Amino acid sequence: MGNLCSLLAPEPVKKKPAKRSSNAPSSHSNFSNRWNRMRSSRKDPNFDDALIHEQALAAAILFKHHQQNGSLPFDRSSSLRYPNAGSKRNSLPRSSSSRARSLTDPLLHPHQLVHQDTKLDDLETNHFVLVHGGGFGAWCWYKTIALLEESGFKVTAIDLTGSGVHSFDTNNITCLSQYVKPLTDFLEKITEGEKVILVGHDFGGACMSYAMELFPLKISKAVFVAAAMLTSGQSTLDIFSQQEGSNDLMRQAQIFLYVNGNDRPPTSIDLDKSLLRDLLFNQSPAKDVALASVSMRSIPFAPVLEKLSLSDLKYGSVRRFYIETPEDNAIPIALQENMINASPPEKVFRLKGADHSPFFSKPQALHKLLAEISKIG
């Protein structure tokens, strides 16, 4: 997302939404062979790097397969799990790039995280629900899904309306409730007494906040990852307008779509693919950037303008945590700090070296922090 203040007087650009690529491999055997290679290479010391590369390719194949076969729900069969009876399900991947701190405590080193030995069976919930940011989809969490499930957590990744493999036209989204409906439908179906941990990225933070107001008793914790964390009466546009004049890259990347005519407000926003790496993925692997370039969709405009009504009784009752991304070119660290200071969460963590998309640039460090947050009593 980033600075959207220029939307109030945009340069008219009449453009039809681009169709996503639908070229998919014709042979299912190619995917099966890749699966077998990944399973057989499990004991290879270089497996981690190879796995990440294979996952990116496999995720792209799955995404395009969904496109060819119409709208399909994103389920955990698409998350590329690699079960291994000999793996230590409760162990956390090593990473030297995560830093955790509270608003008052000094920075902590990874080995100082205090809940590493807590067992999953002792948690209030071990179910993560991942909410993507504007233009992204459930596909962007593929590394996080794999790492969390490998550690024994349950994971659900949501495609919001008009995102990922959801077939709805983004330009026809007229309000935030419509955009967030796949998330609220999911939470509504959760059995009474069960809870989940919500994780929201980018614009997904506002979507998550909307859901927290509706279903506070079904949400154990909310984790904002480089995300819009609003106060009551604010819109996402209000938040990002705070960086007016400081984010030329975002303004250059924005392409406004006017499906209802140039004399009407924009219906959605595209991002210039040539600027995606610098804006969103400046620390991320090239293969993940390639995956994003063929998978991202337009960002609906109306929900960005909508002001949230958040109460202390409902939204305020959910425990909030924030994960900062200091190398972020879309939501700069100064803006993240502004949101944190305006509405302080319970604890703040920082991912050193993370760009706007830490699920790509720092997947293991992000996983370690999510696991740590799940164990905070």
Automatic annotation (TrEMBL):
<dbReference type="InterPro" id="IPR000073">
    <property type="entry name" value="AB_hydrolase_1"/>
</dbReference>
<dbReference type="GO" id="GO:0080032">
    <property type="term" value="F:methyl jasmonate esterase activity"/>
</dbReference>
<feature type="region of interest" description="Disordered">
    <location>
        <begin position="74"/>
        <end position="108"/>
    </location>
</feature>
<feature type="compositionally biased region" description="Low complexity">
    <location>
        <begin position="87"/>
        <end position="101"/>
    </location>
</feature>
<dbReference type="GO" id="GO:0009694">
    <property type="term" value="P:jasmonic acid metabolic process"/>
</dbReference>
<keyword id="KW-0378">Hydrolase</keyword>
<dbReference type="GO" id="GO:0080030">
    <property type="term" value="F:methyl indole-3-acetate esterase activity"/>
</dbReference>
<feature type="domain" description="AB hydrolase-1">
    <location>
        <begin position="128"/>
        <end position="366"/>
    </location>
</feature>
<dbReference type="Pfam" id="PF12697">
    <property type="entry name" value="Abhydrolase_6"/>
</dbReference>
<protein>
    <submittedName>
        <fullName>Putative methylesterase 11, chloroplastic</fullName>
    </submittedName>
</protein>
<feature type="compositionally biased region" description="Low complexity">
    <location>
        <begin position="21"/>
        <end position="33"/>
    </location>
</feature>
<feature type="region of interest" description="Disordered">
    <location>
        <begin position="1"/>
        <end position="42"/>
    </location>
</feature>
<dbReference type="InterPro" id="IPR045889">
    <property type="entry name" value="MES/HNL"/>
</dbReference>
<dbReference type="GO" id="GO:0009696">
    <property type="term" value="P:salicylic acid metabolic process"/>
</dbReference>
<dbReference type="InterPro" id="IPR029058">
    <property type="entry name" value="AB_hydrolase_fold"/>
</dbReference>
<dbReference type="GO" id="GO:0080031">
    <property type="term" value="F:methyl salicylate esterase activity"/>
</dbReference>
